[in-house]
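Work Package 3 (structural annotation) set out to generate three-dimensional models for the target panel prioritized at the project kickoff. During this period the team completed the workflow that converts sequence records into discrete structure tokens, so that structures can be stored uniformly alongside our sequence database. As a representative example, we reproduce one entry of 382 residues exactly as it appears in the project archive.
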Amino acid sequence: MPDTLRTPRRVFHYSNSSTPRRSPSPTFESPSGPRYQASPFGDAGLRILSAPHRPARHISRTAIKILDAPELQDDFYLNLVDWGNNDCLAVGLGSCVYLWNANTSRVTKLCDFVNDAISSVSWAKQGSHLAIGTNKGAVLLWDTETSRRVRTWSGHTSRTGALAWSSNILTSGSRDHKIYHRDVRSPSQYFRELNEHVQEVCGLKWNEEGTMLASGGNDNNLLIWSSHQNNLLWKFRDHTAAVKAIGWSPHTRGMLASGGGTADKTIKFWNAISGAAISSHDTGSQVCNVAWSKKTNEIVSTHGYASNSDNSSNQVIVWKANNMQRVATLSGHSSRVLYMSLSQDGSTVVTGAGDETLRFWDVFSTAEVIRREPEDRRECLR
């Protein structure tokens, strides 16, 4: 019988006392224990190595759908494309607004203003109401289910190129330098007027909580306003060109990204709570739009004119938000990519350009979702 299988004998040791002591029982280690393993990795390392392999995320570099958009204006200061929570895309073409249903691919004409061009469109956060801004400065509210005009607001003396919603509050910005807050429940034309910009207002975005409004203008300024008051919190003057591209982070409370026009070409990050500039990154081309992914901590930007030595014009670029590492570059437009919106589920990006096409990009359908309750969103720390 092999020695390793013998039953050990009990051994007694005697000392001067008459009571014998029993030696400790020998300890036997399992053959699968660490002493007998040939692998240099520990248990934790082996668990990692044996975990199923997660395939690398793939982002298609070509558009999954292209729609012709005749009369889509080649104008940096307008906002003519918006994808609503009802999964319907609104597009301003000339004097008309068209709706494209993402579920049925059906296209319908909502309205035609004949003698006035469309300069902005924006869906209410809930329901089927669409706000429309025009070249003459009017702001209108349409019920898209009944194709009926609900309200018409006046006040602006020039084109209304920017619209933004916060619950029942519709905010409009114009070439007349003014911003108006309008309560859709009130018969008044507006209840607050903001007069800090000195050139055209071309970018407007409310944060998710509805407590801060960011406005960008052709005066190169990015302004942060408190709620619905005429209370300017911060004036950021670091951009050297018009600020149309504005996006609030859905993952970090108070974090804001902004992009500058042709003479600037940068995307900058801000802490709108403390008023601190976080970082600035040169993209090499005019920044027309910036939006945060609803699923990942990434941003998407669209671009126009590039530097002479750079070939990055007319692109759609996906970046990691924490370090601005480029994730993907999407090409296809032959003119400035002036318009952008995200689908309701956050998977698809639609872009519009001066080449009179709308292109749909499958960017985030395979992305791993950041799972975080709204009340648990991180604060911007810098």
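Residues 260 and 325 are 19 Å apart (CA to CA).
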